[in-house]
């Protein structure tokens, strides 16, 4: 047997020459390298954190945030907590007094109109109620003008309505699921969660339409892009370069210009209709409607997203050696069998990568549907933009955005389970 | 040198030409008969047209002129998948998305062979290349040598009578390559298949083939069995390309009794076997194999011409000694001697006499 001390303790940790554990000694040796690497990527990390992580986190937060009621009406929120709205009776004087004190303070700070707009999302008309009442309550005194119940009801009928108080009570919590419920065509009422009235249920349909149209766009990109990618990968270099320039050409023109060009092409007095009428294929009074509907959106977006499908497919096909096809043929396979059994399976990672890229891009697309989509061809992102810039209901916009993000992640997960994300290649 | 057996060969190239650009011929007037069961190697430097010939035979390239026949039938217009020729590719071309067994099963599936028969054939083919255990693996999980065996099995599994191999051993390391050479040769002999083998490695060509066709510049320079090719090269190109060779340039002084007297640039006279020379005053390049050079003058015939040589380098190579000499201003003259107890080990700087049998020294084209 050997007397080497290192061999006498086979169970202990491996030691370095100076007796410290080897792991510790190794990590110390690597620490400097790690620090230097970290320092190099620090600017990028900071950039990503500020421009990506923080906005997304704040969006997620905004979709449930609801502290405006509790902040503006702190006493009312406490007082109304014990009120039972289902009895159909108005709250008692205590609640009205608390509300009056909160309002007088809020009016002084000019915060009441913002609260009005917020509650208006849930009960329309409440915004003007807050504004009108605010103007008059400016002159009230919280002590001398008591009691307030009668006075408030005199001021505006709305304060004598049970539903006004029910809304305030429902939304008094600092966090709410209300935005998310609205985003899926439901609503949070004092009686609990219910569906929106039939005529207001548009968002689920819009989500569904966005998904289906994105799938159609992805499918048409695969069908159109596959032969092009194959040509690119198999033509001699000089011709392939020319073709590649043609594929990339759209990238050199502004997205807005390309989409507007489709408008020129597709409208009823547009190029395509004119040609069809001229050729006698379509009657002048029955010109085709190809724009401001789903067809227009699908056509224009397929065109715009096609390069994102072709490029990953191309880079994968480039790695498939022609000898595979030759081998298949020498083994007795016809051209079709050789393609379908040997070439196509190897190109699937490219299709997967292209599809994920096109699908995720199209599910959040905004400009093209906005311009050529009309009312029937718009996506959920157009609705989000509307809530961000027109209705200013940022909470709902955030909730819609969050759901969109969740759907994309879910589909990504599903893709990983079914096809495997390892099967996605952008090249090499 | 074509081995005419009377009837036409199993595979025949009849005045075959090939051009890619319409200006240059890659294959110039190829005539070749390959007998059934023969192992024929196409050997040549890159760009010599050997791979193009193989691809024309496989059907991936079309001949611009001439006829290629298989079993007496012209196959010019038969697409590759109907030719029934097995092929082993340089990079094996094993389908990466299929297991080894699926790869072998593929040619049987496209021939619509039943499942049980298919499985039996696949297993038999895998056993033949000693890969019986690996049917469930993917090609990427195999070593280069194992992939090579699978590729071979795949080319043989559908019982092709003709198997083409395009530098199949190029990617293997030396030891494995040598092992596989014998393996392929043994399998080919056992099955009695005809093999057309393309390589640029002359050792491979010599060890495996029944006949070797040496290609250069689109033509077959010499077609002969390996021993004949090595010992009786018919041109300077073949002499240089096959094995190690010493070349000395000179002019024919006289031809007498089948022995040519050649005067070298330095004025030295040597005896040579006139192969490509017929006239006095003709320029020639004489070629002599390194192992046919003699130091022992007693073994030479009476009156043989000898040369003075200066030893430049002595390399001990185990089984042989390799001595580099300066002979008639040629610094790259190599002599190989067997390592034997009585063999002299020449020291650099020494000046010795060397000579050879006139029959071993071939006067070829300059």
UniProtKB/TrEMBL annotation, chain A:
Q: Which PROSITE patterns match?
A: ABC_TM1
The GO biological-process annotations, alphabetized, read as:
transmembrane transport
User: What Gene Ontology terms describe where this protein resides (cellular component)?
Assistant: plasma membrane
Q: Which family does it belong to?
A: Belongs to the binding-protein-dependent transport system permease family. CysTW subfamily.
Its membrane topology is listed as: Multi-pass membrane protein
- Which sequence ranges are marked TM in the entry? 37-61, 206-233, 240-257, 295-316, 348-367, 394-415
Q: Which PANTHER family does this UniProt record tie to the protein? A: ABC TRANSPORTER PERMEASE PROTEIN, INNER MEMBRANE ABC TRANSPORTER PERMEASE PROTEIN YDCU-RELATED-RELATED
Organism of origin: Litoreibacter albidus
Coiled-coil residue windows: none
The answer, when asked if Transmembrane is one of the entry's keywords, is: yes
Q: Which InterPro entries does the UniProt entry name for this protein?
A: MetI-like, MetI-like_sf
Determine if Cell wall biogenesis/degradation is one of this entry's keywords.
Answer: no
The cross-references to Gene3D superfamilies, in alphabetical order and at most eight, read:
MetI-like
What is the protein name given in its UniProt record? Putative spermidine/putrescine transport system permease protein
Q: Write the record's keywords in alphabetical order, separated by commas.
A: Cell membrane, Membrane, Transmembrane, Transmembrane helix, Transport
From TrEMBL, chain B:
Ranges for domain ABC transporter: 11-242
InterPro entries from the UniProt entry: AAA+_ATPase (IPR003593), ABC_SmlMolc_Importer (IPR050093), ABC_transporter-like_ATP-bd (IPR003439), ABC_transporter-like_CS (IPR017871), Mo/tungstate-bd_C_term_dom (IPR008995), P-loop_NTPase (IPR027417), PotA-like (IPR005893), Transp-assoc_OB_typ2 (IPR013611)
PROSITE patterns in the record: ABC_TRANSPORTER_1, ABC_TRANSPORTER_2
Which Gene3D superfamilies does this one have? 2.40.50.100, P-loop containing nucleotide triphosphate hydrolases
Report which reactions are catalysed by this protein. Answer: ATP + H2O + polyamine-[polyamine-binding protein]Side 1 = ADP + phosphate + polyamineSide 2 + [polyamine-binding protein]Side 1
Q: Which GO terms describe its cellular component?
A: ATP-binding cassette (ABC) transporter complex
Instruction: Give the matching SUPFAM superfamilies.
Output: MOP-like, P-loop containing nucleoside triphosphate hydrolases
Q: Which Pfam families match?
A: ABC_tran, TOBE_2
Question: Key word Membrane present in the record?
Answer: yes
A molecular function annotated in GO for this UniProt entry is: ATP binding
Alphabetical keyword list: ATP-binding, Cell membrane, Membrane, Nucleotide-binding, Translocase, Transport
Q: What does this protein do?
A: Part of the ABC transporter complex PotABCD involved in spermidine/putrescine import. Responsible for energy coupling to the transport system.
Please give the subunit comment from the record.
The complex is composed of two ATP-binding proteins (PotA), two transmembrane proteins (PotB and PotC) and a solute-binding protein (PotD).
Q: Which family does it belong to?
A: Belongs to the ABC transporter superfamily. Spermidine/putrescine importer (TC 3.A.1.11.1) family.
The protein in question is named Spermidine/putrescine import ATP-binding protein PotA
* Species per Swiss-Prot/TrEMBL record: Litoreibacter albidus
Identify the coding gene: potA
């Amino acid at each position: 047997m050997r007397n080497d001390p290192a061999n006498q303790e086979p169970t202990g940790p491996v030691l370095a020459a100076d007796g410290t554990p080897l792991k510790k000694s190794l990590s110390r040796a690597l620490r400097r390298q790690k620090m230097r690497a970290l320092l190099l990527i620090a600017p990028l990390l900071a950039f990503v954190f500020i421009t990506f992580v923080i906005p997304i986190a704040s969006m997620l937060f905004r979709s449930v945030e609801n502290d405006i009621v509790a902040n503006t009406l702190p006493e009312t929120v406490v007082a109304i907590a014990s009120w039972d709205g289902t009895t159909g009776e108005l709250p008692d004087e205590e609640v009205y007094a608390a509300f009056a004190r909160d309002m007088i303070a809020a009016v002084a700070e000019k915060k009441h109109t913002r609260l009005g707009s917020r509650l208006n999302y849930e009960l329309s008309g409440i915004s003007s109620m807050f504004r009108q009442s605010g103007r008059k309550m400016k002159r009230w005194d919280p002590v001398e003008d008591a009691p307030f119940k009668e006075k408030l009801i005199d001021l505006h009928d709305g304060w004598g309505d049970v539903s006004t108080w029910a809304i305030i009570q429902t939304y008094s919590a600092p966090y709410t699921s209300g935005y998310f419920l609205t985003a899926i065509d439901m609503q949070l009422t004092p009686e609990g969660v219910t569906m929106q009235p039939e005529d207001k249920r548009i968002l689920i349909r819009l989500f569904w339409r966005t998904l289906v149209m994105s799938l159609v766009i992805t499918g048409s990109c695969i069908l159109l892009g596959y032969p092009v990618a194959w040509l690119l990968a198999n033509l001699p270099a000089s011709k392939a370069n020319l073709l590649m320039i043609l594929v990339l050409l759209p990238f050199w023109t502004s997205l807005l210009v390309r989409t507007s060009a489709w408008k020129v092409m597709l409208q009823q007095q547009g190029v395509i209709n004119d040609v069809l009428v001229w050729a006698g294929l379509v009657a002048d009074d029955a010109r085709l409607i190809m724009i401001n509907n789903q067809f227009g959106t699908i056509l224009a977006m397929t065109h715009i997203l096609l390069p994102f499908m072709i490029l990953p497919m191309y880079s994968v096909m480039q790695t498939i050696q022609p000898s595979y096809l030759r081998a298949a043929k020498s083994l007795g396979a016809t051209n079709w069998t050789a393609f379908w059994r040997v070439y196509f399976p190897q190109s699937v990672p490219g299709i997967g990568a292209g599809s994920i890229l096109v699908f995720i891009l199209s599910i959040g697309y905004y400009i093209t549907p906005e311009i050529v989509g009309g009312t029937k061809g718009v996506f959920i992102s157009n609705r989000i933009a509307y809530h961000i810039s027109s209705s200013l209901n940022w909470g709902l916009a955030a909730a819609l955005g969050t759901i969109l993000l969740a759907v994309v992640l879910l589909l990504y997960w599903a893709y990983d389970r079914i096809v495997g994300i390892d099967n996605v290649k952008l090249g090499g | 040198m074509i081995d005419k057996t009377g009837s036409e060969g199993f595979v025949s190239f009849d005045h075959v030409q090939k051009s890619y650009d319409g200006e240059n011929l890659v294959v110039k007037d190829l005539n070749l008969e390959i007998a059934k069961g023969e192992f024929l190697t196409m050997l040549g430097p890159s760009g010599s047209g050997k791979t193009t010939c193989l691809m024309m035979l496989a059907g991936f390239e079309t001949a611009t002129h001439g006829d290629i026949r298989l079993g007496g039938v012209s196959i010019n217009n038969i697409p590759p998948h109907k030719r029934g020729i097995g092929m082993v590719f340089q990079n094996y071309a094993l389908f990466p998305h299929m297991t080894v067994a699926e790869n072998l099963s593929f040619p049987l599936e496209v021939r619509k062979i039943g499942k049980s028969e298919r499985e039996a054939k696949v297993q038999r083919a895998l056993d033949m290349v000693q890969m019986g255990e690996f049917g469930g693996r993917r090609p990427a999980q195999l070593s280069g040598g194992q992939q090579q065996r699978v590729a071979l099995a795949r080319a043989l599994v559908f019982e092709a009578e003709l198997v083409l191999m395009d530098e199949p051993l190029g990617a293997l390391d030396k030891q494995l390559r040598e092992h596989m050479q014998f393996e392929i040769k043994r399998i080919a002999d056992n099955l009695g298949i005809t093999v057309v083998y393309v390589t640029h490695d002359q050792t491979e060509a010599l060890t495996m083939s029944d006949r070797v066709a040496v290609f250069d510049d689109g033509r077959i320079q010499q077609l002969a069995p390996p021993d004949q090719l090595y010992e009786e090269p018919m041109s300077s190109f073949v002499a240089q390309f096959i094995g190690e060779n010493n070349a000395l340039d000179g002019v024919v002084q006289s031809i007498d009794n089948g022995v040519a007297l050649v005067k070298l640039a330095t004025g030295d006279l040597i005896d040579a076997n006139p192969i490509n020379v017929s006239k006095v005053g003709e320029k020639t390049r004489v070629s002599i194999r390194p192992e046919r050079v003699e130091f022992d003058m007693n073994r030479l015939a009476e009156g043989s011409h000898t040369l003075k040589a200066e030893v430049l380098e002595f390399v001990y190579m185990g089984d042989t000694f390799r001595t580099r000499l300066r002979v008639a201003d040629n610094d790259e003259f190599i002599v190989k001697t067997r390592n034997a107890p009585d063999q002299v080990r020449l020291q650099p700087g020494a000046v010795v006499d060397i000579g050879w049998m006139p029959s071993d020294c071939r006067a070829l084209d300059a």
